[in-house]
Design goal:
Elements (H helix, E strand, L loop, with lengths): L33 H17 L5 E13 L2 E14 L13 H8 L32 H11 L7 H10 L3 E3 L4 E3 L1 H13 L6 H15 L5 H10 L4 H9 L4 H4 L1 E2 L10 E5 L2 E8 L2 E6 L11 H13 L3 E4 L6 E7 L2 E6 L11 E3 L11 H8 L3 E5 L6 E7 L2 E6 L2 E4 L11 H15 L2 E8 L6 E7 L2 E6 L2 E4 L11 H13 L1
């Protein structure tokens, strides 16, 4: 297979998939469907493409110069024509239909000659703003690492997972978003250990490891020099240790306009902003969902203003008489009932729903949020309570230990019992199992026991354990005594 990579050494042999065997069936004849068909189709196209000739393309660049009086302007355009499609016949990146993709790639221009004059039919002025560089995706990060000679194909996955596991970046499903901690650590290393974070140093280190792998360099000698040598890692850390001021290392030099003395810090409990107003030092935490790229001087001033003015009460709770506040914390805005006191160190708090902003909240809305989780009524089949609330993964309804997320059009503050029961039924169907009988709790452990009808036959659900019923058992006639004996037998085995 043709090797498109620039990897060094034995790493070039690390293909994700290598076709093998005496025949290579066309995807349409492979008798596959769904995801299996898509995967096999991709493998087939990529493999065939590697055995085909390169494509031949013709690019045409045209510059049209327009003059009037003392004004002169150049208009540029370009065309693209595929002279010989080559491997494009089998595979075009990002397309399931190579033939259609070939047509979409071509940009045809009319026949033109140098010096030919043209007529102006219409002219439209369109503004254009330069966009900042796009954030890295996992794919573009791997491409950049490969370009700089950092890492190997077998280490790219661990590099990407490590920077996320250690909190230097997070993925929004498409791109990698750097954290405040990443800025602080990177700046500290660039100031005090610049060559250690230089891509050329890392690339040279990779070359040295290749020499060790080939047996041309003593690994023990290399490690001794790298760590304990005159210019080794230990000596560098010892030299810089007294020069590193922990307080300065926490301050981020973010490229924001209009900060005017406001500083962003990284602390033990997350990022925060600190400034001084009329000789008084004021600091406030940055919300956890506010990424560095979304931070602005105006947003910082808004947070500091709210911190300085203190919480403003929306009014008092009609039953308890306690004040109700809208506050912003590390995990975003929330409503709070009462103040933090020695007697009440943890007053009730409920996060604002998705799409809500502090300015949207009035006393009635705040009171409705503070009722969460709210009781909707009793389930018509079990007689057990059904509730609606908001959790880590958003709004939900709850019944007998079963959670079901609300749909996009459902409102947790307005949803009724009938709609909640409907959603819970969907959850039961999705699991492929339903309860046949509720036997009660185990006489010794107090764990609940239910007889369930599952995808692979009837079973009992004992706490968090699932135990299949013996073959030939009628689940409708299964008793608590039968369940206890089955659990004991399972335990002995």
């Amino acid at each position: 297979m043709r090797n498109f990579g620039k990897s060094k050494g034995a790493q070039e042999a690390h293909e994700a998939i290598r076709p093998a065997g005496s025949s290579f069936i066309h995807p349409e004849n492979a008798k596959l469907s769904g995801r299996e068909f898509k995967l096999y189709d991709l493998i087939w196209k990529r493999t065939i493409a590697t055995q085909m000739a390169e494509a031949e393309l013709e690019f045409t660049n045209v510059t049209i110069t327009a003059e009037k009086d003392d004004t002169k302007a150049d208009f540029k355009t370009s065309g693209k024509k595929i002279l010989f499609p080559g491997f494009f016949r089998a595979y075009v990146e990002g397309s399931d239909d190579p033939e259609a993709a070939i047509e979409n790639q071509e940009i045809f221009l009319p026949e033109m000659k140098v010096g030919e004059s043209i007529d102006l039919h219409s002219l439209e002025a369109i503004s254009h703003e330069t966009k900042p560089p796009a954030r890295f995706t996992e794919a573009t990060l791997v491409k950049e690492l490969e370009k700089r000679g950092v890492g190997r194909p077998s280490t790219y996955a661990s590099i990407i997972s490590t920077i996320q596991d250690r909190g230097y970046a997070k993925s929004d499903g498409k791109t990698l978003i750097p954290s405040y901690t990443a800025f602080a650590v990177t700046e500290l290393l660039e100031v005090h250990f610049p060559h250690l974070v230089d891509s050329d140093f890392t690339s040279e280190l990779e070359n040295k490891l290749d020499e060790i792998a080939k047996g041309k360099y003593d690994p023990v000698k290399y490690l001794e020099e790298y760590y304990g040598g005159e210019k080794g890692l230990k000596a560098q850390v010892d030299q810089q240790e007294d020069k590193i001021d922990p307080q300065k290392a926490k301050v981020l030099n973010l490229p924001l306009e209009g900060l005017n003395g406001m500083q962003v810090h990284v602390g033990r409990f997350g990022p925060y902003v600190k400034t001084e107003i009329n000789g008084e030092e004021i600091s406030t935490s940055l919300p956890a969902d506010l990424d560095p790229g979304e931070l602005s001087a105006d947003k910082i001033q808004e947070l500091l203003k709210a911190e300085k003015e203190g919480p403003q009460s929306l009014g008092n709770h009609p039953e308890t008489g306690e004040p109700v506040y809208v506050l912003s914390g590390r995990f975003g805005p929330y409503v709070q009932l009462g103040e933090v006191t020695e007697e009440n160190k943890k007053p009730k708090r409920v996060s604002l729903l998705k799409g809500m902003t502090p300015s949207d909240i009035d006393l009635d809305t705040a009171l409705n949020l503070l009722e969460l989780p709210r009781t909707l009524g009793e389930h018509p089949e079990t007689g057990k309570v059904v509730k609606a609330g908001v959790g880590r993964y958003g709004p939900f309804v709850l019944h007998d230990g079963t959670f079901k997320s609300l749909k996009k059009d459902d409102n947790v503050l307005e949803i009724g019992l009938d709609r909640a029961v409907e959603l819970l039924k969907e959850k039961s169907k999705g699991r492929g199992s339903s309860a046949i009988a509720d036997l009660g709790t185990h006489p010794e452990t107090d764990q609940p026991i239910k007889v369930m009808d599952g995808r692979y036959g009837p079973y009992i659900k004992y706490g968090k354990k699932n135990i299949s019923l013996p073959k030939g058992t009628e689940p409708e006639k299964f008793t608590m005594g039968d369940a206890v004996r089955l659990i004991e037998e399972k335990g002995k085995k």
